[in-house]
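explain this:

___
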Amino acid sequence: MSRRIFNAIWIVTLTVFIAALSIILAVLHGAMTDVQRRHLEIETELAVEGVIRSGRDFLDSLDDADYRITWITGDGSVLYDSVTDFEAMENHLEREEIRQALTEGRGESVRYSETLSEKRFYVAELLPDGTVLRLSATQTTAWRVLLPVLAVFAAALLLSFWLTTGLAKRSLENVNSLDLDDPLQYVGKADYAEIAPLLQRLGRQQAQIRQDQAELEKTSRIRQEFTANVSHELKTPLHAISGYAELLESGMARPEDVRPFAGKIRVESQRMTKLVEDIIDLTKLDSGGIGIPWEETDLRRVASAAADSLTAEAAEAGVTLLLEGGPAILRGIPQYLYSIIFNLCDNAIKYSAPGDTVTVRTEDRDDAAVLIVADTGIGIPPEHQDRIFERFYRVDKSHSKAVGGTGLGLSIVKHAARLHRADIALDSAPGRGSVFTITFPKNAERRNGAEP
Protein backbone atom coordinates (compact mmCIF):
# COMPACT_ATOMS: atom_id res chain seq x y z
CA MET A 1 0.00 0.00 0.00
CA SER A 2 2.90 2.33 0.76
CA ARG A 3 4.24 1.74 -2.75
CA ARG A 4 0.83 2.47 -4.27
CA ILE A 5 0.43 5.73 -2.36
CA PHE A 6 3.96 6.76 -3.26
CA ASN A 7 3.49 5.93 -6.94
CA ALA A 8 0.16 7.74 -7.12
CA ILE A 9 1.53 10.93 -5.55
CA TRP A 10 4.71 10.71 -7.60
CA ILE A 11 2.83 10.30 -10.89
CA VAL A 12 0.60 13.26 -10.09
CA THR A 13 3.61 15.38 -9.12
CA LEU A 14 5.54 14.45 -12.27
CA THR A 15 2.53 15.17 -14.47
CA VAL A 16 2.06 18.60 -12.88
CA PHE A 17 5.76 19.43 -13.28
CA ILE A 18 5.84 18.41 -16.94
CA ALA A 19 2.68 20.38 -17.67
CA ALA A 20 4.08 23.41 -15.82
CA LEU A 21 7.40 23.14 -17.70
CA SER A 22 5.62 23.02 -21.04
CA ILE A 23 3.50 26.06 -20.19
CA ILE A 24 6.54 27.98 -18.91
CA LEU A 25 8.54 27.21 -22.08
CA ALA A 26 5.63 28.24 -24.31
CA VAL A 27 5.08 31.51 -22.45
CA LEU A 28 8.81 32.21 -22.26
CA HIS A 29 9.25 31.53 -25.98
CA GLY A 30 6.49 34.00 -26.89
CA ALA A 31 7.83 36.67 -24.54
CA MET A 32 11.42 36.31 -25.77
CA THR A 33 10.29 36.45 -29.41
CA ASP A 34 8.39 39.72 -28.81
CA VAL A 35 11.29 41.29 -26.96
CA GLN A 36 13.85 40.24 -29.59
CA ARG A 37 11.71 41.52 -32.45
CA ARG A 38 11.18 44.86 -30.76
CA HIS A 39 14.90 45.14 -29.98
CA LEU A 40 15.78 44.41 -33.61
CA GLU A 41 13.35 47.08 -34.82
CA ILE A 42 15.00 49.66 -32.56
CA GLU A 43 18.48 48.69 -33.73
CA THR A 44 17.32 48.91 -37.35
CA GLU A 45 16.01 52.46 -36.81
CA LEU A 46 19.30 53.51 -35.23
CA ALA A 47 21.29 51.95 -38.08
CA VAL A 48 19.12 53.70 -40.66
CA GLU A 49 19.85 57.08 -38.98
CA GLY A 50 23.56 56.31 -39.04
CA VAL A 51 23.58 55.36 -42.73
CA ILE A 52 21.53 58.42 -43.67
CA ARG A 53 24.08 60.65 -41.92
CA SER A 54 27.39 58.90 -42.62
CA GLY A 55 26.74 56.35 -45.35
CA ARG A 56 29.16 53.48 -45.75
CA ASP A 57 31.52 54.92 -43.15
CA PHE A 58 28.91 54.29 -40.43
CA LEU A 59 28.57 50.66 -41.42
CA ASP A 60 32.34 50.15 -41.48
CA SER A 61 32.60 51.64 -38.00
CA LEU A 62 30.18 49.09 -36.50
CA ASP A 63 31.57 46.08 -34.67
CA ASP A 64 28.49 44.23 -33.44
CA ALA A 65 28.53 40.51 -33.74
CA ASP A 66 24.92 40.29 -32.48
CA TYR A 67 23.45 41.54 -35.73
CA ARG A 68 24.00 41.01 -39.43
CA ILE A 69 23.65 44.20 -41.46
CA THR A 70 22.90 44.11 -45.17
CA TRP A 71 22.54 47.15 -47.50
CA ILE A 72 20.59 46.51 -50.67
CA THR A 73 19.77 48.61 -53.75
CA GLY A 74 16.29 49.07 -55.09
CA ASP A 75 16.88 46.42 -57.73
CA GLY A 76 18.00 43.82 -55.16
CA SER A 77 21.78 44.06 -55.54
CA VAL A 78 23.77 43.83 -52.31
CA LEU A 79 25.93 46.90 -51.52
CA TYR A 80 27.17 45.75 -48.14
CA ASP A 81 26.99 42.76 -45.76
CA SER A 82 28.62 42.58 -42.34
CA VAL A 83 29.04 38.82 -42.35
CA THR A 84 29.98 37.62 -45.82
CA ASP A 85 31.40 38.91 -49.11
CA PHE A 86 28.58 40.98 -50.55
CA GLU A 87 29.90 40.78 -54.12
CA ALA A 88 29.30 37.01 -54.16
CA MET A 89 25.78 37.28 -52.72
CA GLU A 90 22.74 36.66 -54.89
CA ASN A 91 20.08 39.22 -55.67
CA HIS A 92 17.80 39.92 -52.67
CA LEU A 93 14.84 41.40 -54.49
CA GLU A 94 12.76 38.29 -53.85
CA ARG A 95 13.29 38.37 -50.10
CA GLU A 96 9.99 38.88 -48.33
CA GLU A 97 11.16 41.67 -46.04
CA ILE A 98 12.85 43.49 -48.98
CA ARG A 99 9.73 43.47 -51.13
CA GLN A 100 7.65 44.64 -48.20
CA ALA A 101 10.11 47.47 -47.37
CA LEU A 102 10.16 48.66 -51.02
CA THR A 103 6.37 48.82 -51.14
CA GLU A 104 5.45 49.79 -47.54
CA GLY A 105 8.61 51.40 -46.17
CA ARG A 106 9.29 48.58 -43.68
CA GLY A 107 9.30 44.80 -43.85
CA GLU A 108 9.74 41.93 -41.39
CA SER A 109 10.10 38.18 -41.67
CA VAL A 110 11.32 35.10 -39.81
CA ARG A 111 12.95 32.33 -41.83
CA TYR A 112 15.82 29.91 -42.07
CA SER A 113 19.03 31.47 -43.41
CA GLU A 114 20.79 29.28 -45.95
CA THR A 115 23.93 31.39 -45.58
CA LEU A 116 24.22 31.08 -41.80
CA SER A 117 22.27 27.79 -41.42
CA GLU A 118 20.01 29.08 -38.61
CA LYS A 119 16.60 30.60 -38.09
CA ARG A 120 16.70 34.42 -37.99
CA PHE A 121 14.60 37.55 -37.60
CA TYR A 122 14.76 40.07 -40.44
CA VAL A 123 13.79 43.76 -40.27
CA ALA A 124 14.26 45.93 -43.40
CA GLU A 125 13.64 49.69 -43.78
CA LEU A 126 13.52 51.84 -46.93
CA LEU A 127 16.04 54.72 -47.01
CA PRO A 128 15.28 58.09 -48.67
CA ASP A 129 17.61 57.29 -51.57
CA GLY A 130 15.59 54.16 -52.47
CA THR A 131 18.02 51.66 -50.96
CA VAL A 132 17.07 49.22 -48.19
CA LEU A 133 18.92 48.63 -44.95
CA ARG A 134 18.24 45.25 -43.35
CA LEU A 135 19.24 43.95 -39.92
CA SER A 136 18.89 40.32 -38.87
CA ALA A 137 19.53 38.40 -35.67
CA THR A 138 19.43 34.76 -34.66
CA GLN A 139 16.09 33.85 -33.15
CA THR A 140 16.62 33.02 -29.50
CA THR A 141 14.23 30.24 -28.44
CA ALA A 142 13.19 29.08 -25.00
CA TRP A 143 15.40 26.03 -25.45
CA ARG A 144 18.43 28.26 -24.93
CA VAL A 145 17.33 28.86 -21.35
CA LEU A 146 16.20 25.26 -20.90
CA LEU A 147 19.28 24.21 -18.92
CA PRO A 148 18.66 26.46 -15.89
CA VAL A 149 14.95 25.62 -16.05
CA LEU A 150 15.78 21.92 -16.08
CA ALA A 151 18.10 22.43 -13.11
CA VAL A 152 15.24 24.01 -11.16
CA PHE A 153 12.94 21.25 -12.39
CA ALA A 154 15.34 18.54 -11.19
CA ALA A 155 15.68 20.21 -7.78
CA ALA A 156 11.88 20.43 -7.50
CA LEU A 157 11.55 16.74 -8.39
CA LEU A 158 14.08 15.75 -5.76
CA LEU A 159 12.24 17.84 -3.17
CA SER A 160 8.92 16.29 -4.26
CA PHE A 161 10.43 12.80 -4.01
CA TRP A 162 11.56 13.48 -0.45
CA LEU A 163 8.24 15.04 0.58
CA THR A 164 6.23 12.27 -1.12
CA THR A 165 8.21 9.56 0.64
CA GLY A 166 7.65 11.23 4.00
CA LEU A 167 3.95 11.82 3.33
CA ALA A 168 3.39 8.18 2.31
CA LYS A 169 5.15 6.94 5.45
CA ARG A 170 3.22 9.30 7.74
CA SER A 171 -0.10 8.38 6.11
CA LEU A 172 0.56 4.67 6.57
CA GLU A 173 1.76 5.13 10.13
CA ASN A 174 -1.70 6.43 11.03
CA VAL A 175 -3.40 3.61 9.14
CA ASN A 176 -1.12 0.88 10.52
CA SER A 177 -1.65 2.07 14.07
CA LEU A 178 -5.44 1.78 13.84
CA ASP A 179 -7.19 -0.47 16.33
CA LEU A 180 -9.75 -1.99 13.97
CA ASP A 181 -11.64 -3.53 16.88
CA ASP A 182 -12.73 0.00 17.83
CA PRO A 183 -12.39 2.26 14.76
CA LEU A 184 -14.86 4.87 16.00
CA GLN A 185 -12.40 6.07 18.67
CA TYR A 186 -10.43 7.86 15.91
CA VAL A 187 -13.40 9.73 14.43
CA GLY A 188 -13.06 13.46 15.10
CA LYS A 189 -9.26 13.41 15.46
CA ALA A 190 -7.36 15.69 13.05
CA ASP A 191 -4.83 13.02 12.04
CA TYR A 192 -7.62 10.76 10.82
CA ALA A 193 -9.94 13.34 9.23
CA GLU A 194 -9.35 12.01 5.70
CA ILE A 195 -10.34 8.45 6.58
CA ALA A 196 -13.15 9.34 9.00
CA PRO A 197 -15.89 8.13 6.57
CA LEU A 198 -14.07 4.80 6.23
CA LEU A 199 -13.75 4.47 10.01
CA GLN A 200 -17.44 5.25 10.48
CA ARG A 201 -18.38 2.66 7.87
CA LEU A 202 -16.14 0.08 9.56
CA GLY A 203 -17.80 0.88 12.88
CA ARG A 204 -21.27 0.40 11.42
CA GLN A 205 -20.25 -2.85 9.75
CA GLN A 206 -18.76 -4.19 12.98
CA ALA A 207 -21.89 -3.26 14.89
CA GLN A 208 -23.97 -5.04 12.26
CA ILE A 209 -21.69 -8.08 12.39
CA ARG A 210 -21.99 -8.22 16.18
CA GLN A 211 -25.75 -7.90 15.90
CA ASP A 212 -25.88 -10.64 13.25
CA GLN A 213 -23.71 -12.90 15.41
CA ALA A 214 -25.99 -12.32 18.38
CA GLU A 215 -29.01 -13.14 16.20
CA LEU A 216 -27.32 -16.28 14.90
CA GLU A 217 -26.47 -17.39 18.42
CA LYS A 218 -30.01 -16.67 19.54
CA THR A 219 -31.44 -18.55 16.56
CA SER A 220 -29.10 -21.48 17.19
CA ARG A 221 -30.09 -21.58 20.84
CA ILE A 222 -33.79 -21.43 19.96
CA ARG A 223 -33.38 -24.26 17.45
CA GLN A 224 -31.56 -26.40 19.99
CA GLU A 225 -34.22 -25.73 22.60
CA PHE A 226 -36.94 -26.39 20.03
CA THR A 227 -35.40 -29.72 19.04
CA ALA A 228 -35.06 -30.74 22.67
CA ASN A 229 -38.63 -29.67 23.45
CA VAL A 230 -40.07 -31.46 20.42
CA SER A 231 -38.24 -34.63 21.42
CA HIS A 232 -39.58 -34.33 24.96
CA GLU A 233 -43.14 -33.55 23.85
CA LEU A 234 -43.17 -36.49 21.45
CA LYS A 235 -41.55 -38.86 23.89
CA THR A 236 -44.32 -38.51 26.51
CA PRO A 237 -47.28 -39.61 24.31
CA LEU A 238 -45.13 -42.24 22.60
CA HIS A 239 -44.29 -43.81 25.94
CA ALA A 240 -47.95 -43.77 26.93
CA ILE A 241 -49.05 -45.30 23.61
CA SER A 242 -46.29 -47.89 23.79
CA GLY A 243 -47.17 -48.80 27.40
CA TYR A 244 -50.90 -49.24 26.78
CA ALA A 245 -50.29 -51.11 23.53
CA GLU A 246 -47.88 -53.46 25.30
CA LEU A 247 -50.47 -54.20 28.01
CA LEU A 248 -53.08 -54.94 25.37
CA GLU A 249 -50.72 -57.05 23.31
CA SER A 250 -49.53 -59.14 26.28
CA GLY A 251 -53.08 -59.83 27.42
CA MET A 252 -52.35 -58.39 30.85
CA ALA A 253 -55.16 -55.85 30.53
CA ARG A 254 -58.47 -56.86 32.04
CA PRO A 255 -61.41 -56.91 29.64
CA GLU A 256 -62.98 -53.93 31.31
CA ASP A 257 -59.69 -51.93 30.84
CA VAL A 258 -59.38 -52.53 27.10
CA ARG A 259 -61.78 -49.77 26.13
CA PRO A 260 -60.25 -47.11 28.49
CA PHE A 261 -56.73 -48.07 27.30
CA ALA A 262 -57.82 -47.71 23.67
CA GLY A 263 -59.27 -44.31 24.54
CA LYS A 264 -55.99 -43.23 26.14
CA ILE A 265 -54.07 -44.40 23.05
CA ARG A 266 -56.44 -42.35 20.90
CA VAL A 267 -55.99 -39.24 23.08
CA GLU A 268 -52.20 -39.53 23.04
CA SER A 269 -52.26 -40.10 19.26
CA GLN A 270 -54.36 -36.98 18.82
CA ARG A 271 -51.93 -35.09 21.01
CA MET A 272 -49.04 -36.22 18.81
CA THR A 273 -50.98 -35.39 15.66
CA LYS A 274 -51.73 -31.88 16.98
CA LEU A 275 -48.07 -31.38 17.88
CA VAL A 276 -46.92 -32.43 14.40
CA GLU A 277 -49.54 -30.19 12.77
CA ASP A 278 -48.39 -27.25 14.87
CA ILE A 279 -44.74 -27.90 13.95
CA ILE A 280 -45.69 -28.04 10.25
CA ASP A 281 -47.59 -24.75 10.61
CA LEU A 282 -44.60 -23.10 12.28
CA THR A 283 -42.29 -24.36 9.55
CA LYS A 284 -44.54 -22.86 6.86
CA LEU A 285 -44.76 -19.60 8.78
CA ASP A 286 -40.97 -19.48 9.17
CA SER A 287 -40.68 -19.71 5.38
CA GLY A 288 -43.06 -16.74 4.96
CA GLY A 289 -46.09 -18.73 3.84
CA ILE A 290 -44.65 -19.07 0.33
CA GLY A 291 -47.13 -20.45 -2.17
CA ILE A 292 -50.19 -19.96 0.05
CA PRO A 293 -52.78 -17.70 -1.66
CA TRP A 294 -54.01 -14.45 -0.12
CA GLU A 295 -57.65 -13.45 -0.46
CA GLU A 296 -60.25 -10.98 0.75
CA THR A 297 -61.34 -12.29 4.14
CA ASP A 298 -63.95 -11.27 6.69
CA LEU A 299 -62.26 -11.52 10.10
CA ARG A 300 -65.71 -11.74 11.75
CA ARG A 301 -66.59 -14.86 9.75
CA VAL A 302 -63.24 -16.52 10.56
CA ALA A 303 -63.75 -15.71 14.27
CA SER A 304 -67.22 -17.26 14.16
CA ALA A 305 -65.80 -20.48 12.66
CA ALA A 306 -63.08 -20.67 15.32
CA ALA A 307 -65.61 -20.03 18.12
CA ASP A 308 -67.90 -22.77 16.80
CA SER A 309 -64.98 -25.21 16.90
CA LEU A 310 -64.35 -24.39 20.55
CA THR A 311 -67.97 -24.33 21.77
CA ALA A 312 -67.84 -27.87 23.15
CA GLU A 313 -64.49 -27.32 24.86
CA ALA A 314 -65.75 -24.09 26.46
CA ALA A 315 -68.93 -25.78 27.69
CA GLU A 316 -66.93 -28.65 29.15
CA ALA A 317 -64.70 -26.18 31.01
CA GLY A 318 -67.71 -24.16 32.24
CA VAL A 319 -66.48 -21.06 30.37
CA THR A 320 -68.77 -18.71 28.46
CA LEU A 321 -67.52 -17.97 24.91
CA LEU A 322 -68.92 -14.75 23.42
CA LEU A 323 -68.55 -13.39 19.87
CA GLU A 324 -68.98 -9.63 19.34
CA GLY A 325 -68.36 -7.00 16.70
CA GLY A 326 -69.15 -6.70 13.04
CA PRO A 327 -67.54 -7.50 9.68
CA ALA A 328 -63.85 -6.57 9.32
CA ILE A 329 -62.55 -7.12 5.79
CA LEU A 330 -58.83 -7.54 5.13
CA ARG A 331 -56.61 -9.30 2.64
CA GLY A 332 -54.96 -12.27 4.28
CA ILE A 333 -54.49 -16.03 4.48
CA PRO A 334 -57.70 -17.48 6.01
CA GLN A 335 -56.12 -20.62 7.48
CA TYR A 336 -53.53 -18.58 9.42
CA LEU A 337 -56.12 -16.03 10.55
CA TYR A 338 -58.14 -18.98 11.81
CA SER A 339 -55.05 -20.34 13.64
CA ILE A 340 -54.54 -16.99 15.38
CA ILE A 341 -58.12 -16.81 16.66
CA PHE A 342 -58.38 -20.51 17.52
CA ASN A 343 -55.12 -20.60 19.50
CA LEU A 344 -55.87 -17.38 21.41
CA CYS A 345 -59.36 -18.62 22.34
CA ASP A 346 -58.16 -22.13 23.11
CA ASN A 347 -55.47 -20.72 25.39
CA ALA A 348 -57.96 -18.39 27.10
CA ILE A 349 -60.37 -21.27 27.77
CA LYS A 350 -57.65 -23.52 29.15
CA TYR A 351 -56.45 -20.85 31.61
CA SER A 352 -59.92 -19.79 32.78
CA ALA A 353 -61.92 -21.19 35.67
CA PRO A 354 -65.54 -22.35 35.52
CA GLY A 355 -67.78 -19.28 35.38
CA ASP A 356 -65.20 -17.13 33.56
CA THR A 357 -65.86 -15.52 30.19
CA VAL A 358 -63.86 -15.41 26.95
CA THR A 359 -64.89 -12.66 24.51
CA VAL A 360 -63.88 -12.47 20.86
CA ARG A 361 -64.45 -9.11 19.17
CA THR A 362 -63.75 -7.86 15.63
CA GLU A 363 -63.60 -4.21 14.61
CA ASP A 364 -63.31 -2.51 11.22
CA ARG A 365 -61.21 0.68 11.15
CA ASP A 366 -60.09 2.97 8.31
CA ASP A 367 -56.84 1.20 7.50
CA ALA A 368 -56.92 -1.83 9.78
CA ALA A 369 -58.99 -4.80 10.95
CA VAL A 370 -58.74 -5.40 14.69
CA LEU A 371 -59.13 -8.65 16.65
CA ILE A 372 -59.59 -8.56 20.43
CA VAL A 373 -59.60 -11.73 22.56
CA ALA A 374 -60.28 -11.04 26.24
CA ASP A 375 -60.73 -13.41 29.15
CA THR A 376 -61.37 -13.18 32.87
CA GLY A 377 -58.99 -16.02 33.68
CA ILE A 378 -55.88 -16.30 35.83
CA GLY A 379 -53.86 -13.63 33.97
CA ILE A 380 -50.13 -13.52 33.16
CA PRO A 381 -47.47 -12.10 35.51
CA PRO A 382 -45.52 -9.13 34.04
CA GLU A 383 -42.18 -10.95 34.14
CA HIS A 384 -43.50 -13.65 31.79
CA GLN A 385 -45.32 -11.47 29.26
CA ASP A 386 -42.26 -10.92 27.02
CA ARG A 387 -41.65 -14.67 26.68
CA ILE A 388 -45.08 -16.24 26.31
CA PHE A 389 -44.77 -16.25 22.49
CA GLU A 390 -41.63 -18.42 22.61
CA ARG A 391 -41.98 -22.01 21.51
CA PHE A 392 -42.80 -24.41 24.36
CA TYR A 393 -42.53 -21.63 26.96
CA ARG A 394 -44.72 -22.33 29.99
CA VAL A 395 -45.64 -19.80 32.65
CA ASP A 396 -46.78 -22.55 35.05
CA LYS A 397 -45.51 -25.93 33.89
CA SER A 398 -47.56 -27.92 36.39
CA HIS A 399 -50.79 -26.18 35.35
CA SER A 400 -49.86 -26.47 31.69
CA LYS A 401 -49.62 -30.25 31.95
CA ALA A 402 -53.01 -30.36 33.59
CA VAL A 403 -54.69 -28.36 30.80
CA GLY A 404 -52.76 -30.05 27.99
CA GLY A 405 -51.74 -28.35 24.75
CA THR A 406 -48.55 -28.49 22.70
CA GLY A 407 -46.96 -25.27 23.97
CA LEU A 408 -46.80 -23.93 20.38
CA GLY A 409 -50.13 -22.09 20.19
CA LEU A 410 -48.94 -18.56 21.04
CA SER A 411 -45.80 -19.03 18.92
CA ILE A 412 -48.06 -19.79 15.95
CA VAL A 413 -50.08 -16.67 16.81
CA LYS A 414 -46.92 -14.55 16.82
CA HIS A 415 -45.59 -15.86 13.49
CA ALA A 416 -48.94 -15.76 11.72
CA ALA A 417 -49.47 -12.17 12.92
CA ARG A 418 -45.97 -11.23 11.73
CA LEU A 419 -46.74 -12.72 8.31
CA HIS A 420 -49.74 -10.36 8.12
CA ARG A 421 -47.62 -7.43 9.39
CA ALA A 422 -49.94 -7.23 12.38
CA ASP A 423 -49.13 -5.67 15.76
CA ILE A 424 -49.84 -7.63 18.95
CA ALA A 425 -50.62 -5.84 22.22
CA LEU A 426 -51.11 -7.60 25.57
CA ASP A 427 -52.74 -6.22 28.67
CA SER A 428 -52.72 -8.73 31.53
CA ALA A 429 -52.25 -9.07 35.24
CA PRO A 430 -52.65 -11.99 37.66
CA GLY A 431 -56.25 -12.36 38.86
CA ARG A 432 -57.87 -10.07 36.30
CA GLY A 433 -57.42 -11.95 33.04
CA SER A 434 -55.76 -11.06 29.75
CA VAL A 435 -56.62 -8.97 26.68
CA PHE A 436 -54.86 -9.68 23.37
CA THR A 437 -55.34 -6.99 20.71
CA ILE A 438 -54.08 -7.73 17.19
CA THR A 439 -54.21 -4.96 14.58
CA PHE A 440 -54.05 -6.15 10.96
CA PRO A 441 -53.19 -3.57 8.26
CA LYS A 442 -55.57 -3.97 5.33
CA ASN A 443 -52.72 -3.77 2.79
CA ALA A 444 -50.51 -6.34 4.56
CA GLU A 445 -49.98 -8.41 1.39
CA ARG A 446 -48.59 -5.48 -0.60
CA ARG A 447 -46.33 -4.48 2.28
CA ASN A 448 -45.11 -8.07 2.31
CA GLY A 449 -44.04 -7.75 -1.32
CA ALA A 450 -46.47 -10.44 -2.54
CA GLU A 451 -48.56 -10.22 -5.68
CA PRO A 452 -52.17 -9.18 -5.11
In short: The radius of gyration is 53 Å. The chain has a mean pLDDT of 80. The chain has twelve helices and twelve strands. The first strand starts at residue 68 and ends at 72.
